[in-house]
Every structure is written in structure tokens, then in C-alpha cells.
């Protein structure tokens, strides 16, 4: 009997000790391979263990909503401001007051109410076939509606959040009427019905199915550094073109994160957020995932550097999220499938 009591006491000590250990539960729309190395370093530096759940962004948001106040999630990591805005609108996030985040993140890359914060920047320029197009012919994204581009443009579906945010950013900057006219003109110049992801648009340009694509730079960078030589050879046929460098700049979105409304480990979640905007994690993303760092002075990867410097849009991304619904309506009316 005494031995049995000793075993119970030992188990109780272990369980209570485990419960007391700091931890943070992360719901991530980023693939495990694209975030785990940073999470492991965070644990090594802080002693805070990270429990990671990965999935598609919309699925994770739905899960947060269905779990309600019983959700174990502390931090939601997602791609594109549209999804972070959606999570906030569904009352799934909470405000965070952090001097570290306020100091290191520009105001246009965070929620005005401090519900979500950017972690990396993602540029969405034009990509083209240099043997079939002179870059000086396309100075602005508005030029894509010109008749000379009829049947020469590839882009993915209007259901894609990256395209929705791009159109929403245009609405904020040039107005609803001008944006709707631009979307209608763009659709007329499609080389084919939208299909596939950004890599598929790049491949289509390389294959001669179109001459211009709209895609995020990290997709092209990933192809250029792929272990498969055939993929690298395809990517090498395509060049990056930065539109609107003489006016508002090229469209930029983010990957970002928000602390969940009912986070059981709020302080640990904030520590992880603050860690992600430090120099080393920012450098890791720039070098490994080929995404642009939030902070100045962080070295880009060689392939990002090869794309050249560029001027980025300075539109407040909170407005981009707010205008998502209108952007989708404009795209639907124009027949952008």
C-alpha cells in the first residue's frame, strides 16, 4: 500500500510539473517544413514548447470558430491579410499591446486595432518571357488591359486570396470604378481560363502558352532553387517585372499571425510573435523561404537579390482585408472565374 501511494505521488508530481511547463499551441496555415525550424529554435532559446497543428487557412479558421472558448489554440499563423482580417471579423482574435511588435512592424503591415501582425512580406509582380516581351512595354499593371496583350496573360482563379487582395488594394488606391474597368480589361486578355497555382502560371509562360503571368516571387524563387534541374530550367526562362515603380509601387501582401481570442497561453503566444520579428528569424525566412523581411538590414537570399530592388505599395493592409468582399464582386461581374 505504501509503495502504491509513492507511485501516485510521483505521477502527480510529473503531471503537475508538465502542466506548469510553458507552452504555446499554434494553428498554422504554413506547411510544417516552412515553420518548424524556427519553432524549434524558439523552444531552445526560451524553453517554451510549441505544439503545432497545420492545415489550410480557411479550415483552421473554421476550426477556431467551432471550438469557441474551448479552443486550445494560442496563435493563428496564416498567409495573406484577407484571411487574418476574416478571423478578426469572426471575433476569433484579440488585441496585443507589444512594444517589440510596434517598433519592428510598419503600421500598414499590422491591424489598426493590433489584432494581427505581419511576419514576412510577399511581393506579387508580373513575370514574363524575355524572348517575347520587352520589359519597357509594361510600366504599370494598368497596362495589362491594352489590346496588344490579348490572349497573352495567365493568372490563377478569382477564388484565390492573393488575387482578391491585389484587386482590393487597387480599389483602395485608384477607386472602385477604375478597378472594375481594369479587371474587365484584364479578363479579356486572358490566354486561357484561370487554372492551377502560381507555379502553373510561371510554367505556362515558359511553355509559350502565355507571355505574362501574375505570381508571387517566392514561387519563382523556389523553382529556381529546386533540386530538380528540369524545374530550374523552366524557371530560368522567366523574368520578374516590377510594375508601377514610378507611382504607387508593386502590390505586396504578408504572412502574419494573430493571438486567438481564448488563448490559454497568451503570454507565450506573444513571446513567439515577438521572436518571429527578430533579426535571425527574419533572415531565415529571407534566405530559406525567399520571402521579404519586415526589417531593414536583413540580408535577402541570392535569388531574391537577383530579382532586383523595388518600390512596394504602401496601402494599409487593413483596408485590403476590408475591401475583399467588394473585390470579389468586381471579379465575378467581369467573368474572372
The coarse overall form would be globular
Strand order of the largest sheet: 2-1-3-9-4
User: Helix and strand succession?
Assistant: HEHEHEHHEEEHHHEHHEEHHHHH
Separation, N- and C-terminal Cα atoms: 72 Å
> What level of helicity do the residues show?
40-55%
Q: What is the gist of this entry?
A:
The protein has 337 residues and is α/β, with parallel strands linked by helices. Helices cover 45% and strands 13% of the residues.
Topology of helices and strands:
Blueprint: H1 2-20, E1 23-28, H2 36-46, E2 49-54, H3 57-67, E3 75-79, H4 81-89, H5 99-104, E4 116-123, E5 126-128, E6 153-154, H6 161-174, H7 176-188, H8 198-206, E7 212-214, H9 217-224, H10 229-235, E8 239-241, E9 252-259, H11 266-276, H12 279-289, H13 302-307, H14 317-322, H15 324-333
Parallel strand pairs: 1-2, 1-3, 6-7
Antiparallel strand pairs: 3-9, 4-9, 5-7, 5-8
Explain what the structure shows.
With 337 residues, the protein is α/β, with parallel strands linked by helices. Helix content is 45%, strand content 13%. It has helices at 2-20, 36-46, 57-67, 81-89, 99-104, 161-174, 176-188, 198-206, 217-224, 229-235, 266-276, 279-289, 302-307, 317-322, 324-333; strands spanning 23-28, 49-54, 75-79, 116-123, 126-128, 153-154, 212-214, 239-241, 252-259. A five-stranded mixed sheet has the order 2-1-3-9-4. Helix 2 links the parallel strand 1 and strand 2 (49-54). Helix 9 packs across helix 10 (229-235). The radius of gyration is 22 Å and the shape is globular. Mean pLDDT is 92; it is low at 1-19.
Amino acid at each position: 500500500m505504501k509503495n502504491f501511494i509513492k507511485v501516485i505521488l510521483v505521477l502527480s508530481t510529473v503531471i503537475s510539473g508538465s502542466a506548469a511547463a510553458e507552452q504555446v499551441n499554434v494553428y498554422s496555415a504554413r506547411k510544417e517544413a516552412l515553420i518548424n525550424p524556427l519553432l524549434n529554435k524558439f523552444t531552445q532559446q526560451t524553453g517554451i514548447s510549441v505544439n503545432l497543428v497545420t492545415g489550410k487557412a480557411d479550415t483552421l479558421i473554421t476550426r477556431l470558430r467551432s471550438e469557441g472558448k474551448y479552443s486550445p489554440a494560442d496563435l493563428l499563423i496564416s498567409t495573406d491579410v484577407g484571411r487574418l482580417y476574416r478571423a478578426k471579423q469572426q471575433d476569433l482574435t484579440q488585441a496585443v499591446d507589444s512594444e517589440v511588435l510596434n517598433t519592428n512592424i510598419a503600421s500598414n503591415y499590422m491591424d489598426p486595432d493590433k489584432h494581427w501582425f505581419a511576419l514576412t512580406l510577399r511581393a506579387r509582380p508580373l513575370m514574363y518571357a524575355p524572348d517575347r516581351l520587352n520589359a519597357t512595354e509594361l510600366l504599370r499593371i494598368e497596362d495589362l488591359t491594352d489590346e496588344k496583350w490579348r490572349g497573352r496573360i495567365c493568372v490563377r482563379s478569382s477564388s484565390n486570396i492573393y488575387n482578391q487582395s491585389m484587386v482590393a488594394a487597387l480599389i483602395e488606391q485608384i477607386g472602385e470604378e477604375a478597378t472594375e474597368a481594369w479587371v474587365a480589361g484584364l479578363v479579356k486578355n486572358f490566354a486561357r481560363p484561370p487554372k492551377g497555382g502560381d507555379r502553373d502560371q510561371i510554367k505556362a509562360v515558359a511553355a509559350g502558352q502565355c507571355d505574362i503571368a501574375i505570381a508571387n516571387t517566392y514561387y519563382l524563387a523556389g523553382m529556381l532553387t529546386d533540386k530538380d534541374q528540369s524545374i530550374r530550367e523552366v524557371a530560368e526562362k522567366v523574368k520578374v517585372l516590377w510594375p508601377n515603380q514610378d507611382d504607387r509601387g508593386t502590390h505586396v501582401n504578408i504572412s502574419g499571425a494573430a493571438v486567438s481570442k481564448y488563448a490559454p497561453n497568451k503570454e507565450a503566444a506573444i513571446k513567439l510573435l515577438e521572436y518571429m520579428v527578430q533579426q535571425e528569424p527574419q533572415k531565415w525566412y529571407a534566405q530559406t523561404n525567399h520571402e521579404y523581411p519586415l526589417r531593414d538590414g536583413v540580408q535577402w537570399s541570392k535569388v531574391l537579390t537577383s530579382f532586383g530592388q523595388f518600390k512596394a505599395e504602401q496601402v494599409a493592409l487593413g483596408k485590403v482585408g476590408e475591401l475583399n468582399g467588394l473585390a470579389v464582386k468586381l471579379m465575378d461581374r467581369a467573368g474572372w472565374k
